[in-house]
Structure formats: C-alpha cells, structure tokens
Design brief:
With about 210 residues, the chain is an alpha+beta fold. The chain contains one helix and 14 strands, in the order αββββββββββββββ. Strands 1, 2, 3, 6, 8, 9, 10 and 11 form an eight-stranded antiparallel β-sheet that branches. Strands 4, 5, 7, 12, 13 and 14 form a six-stranded antiparallel β-sheet that branches.
Length: about 210
C-alpha cells in the first residue's frame, strides 16, 4: 500500500516538474524570440493614403506661393510599427505611346516625415503618421518630390504636361513589405486663381 502511494506521488511530482520545465522553456523562448513570435502571429499592416489632393498652400517671406502635398502612413493593426522610414524606390514616366518606362534611381532617397524640423528619420507608428510627398512653387515649372538626398543625377522632378509614377517602399523593424505603394502625379503647369481648384490641374492619386 505504501509503495502504491509513493508511486502515485512520484508520478504527480514528475508531471508537475514537466509542466514547470515546459513553462520555463516557454518563458525563455518568449524572452529570446518574443518579437519574432509576435510579428508572425500579429503581423503589421500598413497603407499609404494621400492626405489632401488639393495640397497645403504656404506663402513664403518673398511672397511666392508653395503648395505642399503630404501622404499619410496608416497602421491598420493593433501593433506599434518600430523605426519606420519611407524610400522612393523607383520612378516611371509616361511616354507618348501610352507606356510607362523606368527612370533610373542610382541612390534610393528617403522621404521626410512631418514636421521636418522636429521629426527624426525613423518614427514609431501607432495609428498613423504624415510625411512630405512633394511640392510646387508658383515661380517653378516642376513638381519636386520631398526626398533626401537629392543628387545631380536625380531625374524624378516632374515637368509640365508629364505623368510620373512614384513607388514608395516602407521599411521598419517589425514590418515586412509585400509590395511597393504607387502614387501617380500629373500636372498641366497651370495655377488657377482659385487654388481650391488646383486638384484639377495637378492630379495626384494612388495606383
């Protein structure tokens, strides 16, 4: 009878120790690979939206008008995206025949988060964050993407009556991009007297 009781006790003790060992092993795994496990079970999902197709008008000290265009990076999952940056990965230009051709990008420039004066290169995105996309000046003939660095070989400035497609890559610690985000820009070069109608002349849209 005593032997039988001891055997049951040893079995329960063994089971209990096994559960404790498994629990400790799980704690070690979480400590070592917690971020990787969370990223696999709860992957981040980001999207890019155009904040205002009509742009944001700014009047400079010299009286010239500048219209800035912004994009919104939206976090669609309840997970904080760490150290997020945006890069202009590739550019395409519409040819007369209706086909888009690639424009070489020798060095991949980075978009600038807003406000540019106080925001670091990489940001954590809880719900959303805004970045500068590009701008036009009333004294200029080009739409310029707001990226850095700008090299002399950069050919991404859009002239009058041209159509460009800008492809953006999102890079972050816990985000694996599955595709690039495309934005198409067309400008006929006109500045309407009513700048509320600017969206009819400089057309910006997601593709």
């Amino acid at each position: 009878f005593i032997i039988t009781v001891m055997t049951k006790y040893e079995i329960w003790n063994l089971v209990l120790n096994a559960f404790i060992a498994v629990g400790l092993f799980g704690v070690v795994l979480i400590a070592l690979f917690g971020n990787w496990i969370r990223n696999k079970l709860f992957p981040a999902q980001l999207d890019i939206e155009i904040l205002d197709k009509n742009g944001e008008l700014t009047v400079m000290d010299n009286g010239h008008k500048v219209i800035y265009y912004h994009i919104h990076v939206v976090n669609k999952k309840p997970v904080v995206v760490k150290n997020c940056m945006l890069y202009l990965k590739s550019i395409q230009k519409l040819e007369a025949g209706g086909n888009f051709i690639d424009i070489p990008v020798s060095v991949t420039p980075r978009y600038i988060w807003s406000p540019a004066e106080t925001t670091p290169e990489a940001v954590d995105i809880i719900r959303s964050h805004t970045a500068d996309f590009g701008y036009v000046m009333d004294s200029s003939t080009v739409f310029k993407p707001t990226v850095t660095p700008i090299l002399k070989s950069f050919r991404g400035n859009l002239e009058h009556h041209e159509t460009f497609r800008y492809y953006i890559q999102i890079v972050a610690e816990n985000y694996n991009p599955k595709h690039l985000f495309g934005i198409e820009v067309t400008w006929d070069g006109l500045w309407p007297e009513d700048l509320g109608q600017m969206y009819k002349h400089l057309i910006i849209k997601r593709i």
